[in-house]
């Protein structure tokens, strides 16, 4: 159980850094889009700024997945969860974590091949300037890997009833 707690602590640190990076990247997107709008208004459009913003946005989305999993802030339908007793709720959460592990594992496996293809083929946006797609596909892959590890840690925490004092769920709510 100490190993799980240490891994959870490392993931929390990693997720905070990824969240900070995502915030910086969102700021960069805003600056790029502002530059794009002003340059077009003054009659000197800069090619590729919108495409670069799209690639950065893809990175933001996927690098932020693990943080939403850690804090349980992702979109979810909780119709059944609050109608179950504590034991059945724990079983449901274990099943959900296993399904998520399998699904994200499949996505990560596909992302490995997609990243490799992008890197080897020199895949790029078709634009006036060359904008390689592999950096955003690398961010996608890394985001899915960290997401997968976070799901695994959450599964282990659920199995062994490990909860931090500040994020322990109230299992008696709505019963």
Could you describe the 3D structure shown?
The structure is a single chain. The protein is an all-alpha fold and 175 residues long. Helix content is 70%, strand content 2%. The chain is built from five helices and two strands, in the order ααααββα. The chain has helices at residues 2-41, 49-63, 65-70, 86-121, 134-159, and strands at 124-125, 131-132. The protein has a two-stranded antiparallel ribbon with strand order 1-2. Strand 1 (124-125) and strand 2 form a beta hairpin. It is elongated.
Low-pLDDT residue spans: 167-175
Distance between the termini: 29 Å
Structural class, by secondary structure, is: mainly alpha
Mean pLDDT: 91
Q: Can you count the helices?
A: 5
Amount of helix: over 70%
Task: Specify the overall morphology.
Answer: elongated
| SS elements, strand count | 2
Strand content: under 5%
Indicate the radius of gyration in whole angstroms.
Answer: 20 Å
Instruction: Give the helices and strands as they follow along the chain.
Output: HHHHEEH
* Major β-sheet profile: 2 strands, antiparallel
Across the major sheet, the strand order is 1-2
Features:
single chain; about 180 residues; mainly alpha; two-stranded antiparallel ribbon
Quick overview:
This protein has 175 residues and is mainly alpha-helical.
Write the layout of secondary structure elements.
Layout (H helix, E strand, L loop, with lengths): L1 H40 L7 H15 L1 H6 L15 H36 L2 E2 L5 E2 L1 H26 L16
């Amino acid at each position: 159980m100490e190993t799980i707690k240490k891994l959870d602590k490392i993931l929390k640190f990693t997720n905070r850094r990824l969240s900070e990076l995502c915030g910086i990247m969102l700021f960069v997107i805003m600056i790029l889009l502002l530059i794009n709008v002003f340059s077009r208004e003054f009659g000197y459009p800069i090619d590729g700024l919108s495409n670069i913003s799209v690639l950065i946005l893809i990175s933001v989305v996927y690098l932020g997945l693990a943080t939403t999993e850690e804090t349980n802030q992702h979109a979810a339908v909780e119709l059944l969860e609050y109608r179950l007793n504590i034991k059945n709720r724990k079983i449901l959460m274990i099943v959900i974590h296993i399904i998520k592990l399998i699904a994200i594992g499949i996505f990560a496996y596909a992302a490995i091949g997609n990243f490799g293809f992008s890197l080897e083929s020199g895949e790029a946006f078709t634009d006036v300037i060359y904008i390689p797609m592999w950096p955003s596909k690398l961010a996608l892959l890394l985001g899915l890997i960290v997401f997968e590890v976070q799901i695994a840690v959450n599964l282990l925490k659920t199995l062994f009833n490990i909860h931090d004092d500040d994020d322990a769920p109230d299992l008696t709510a709505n019963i």
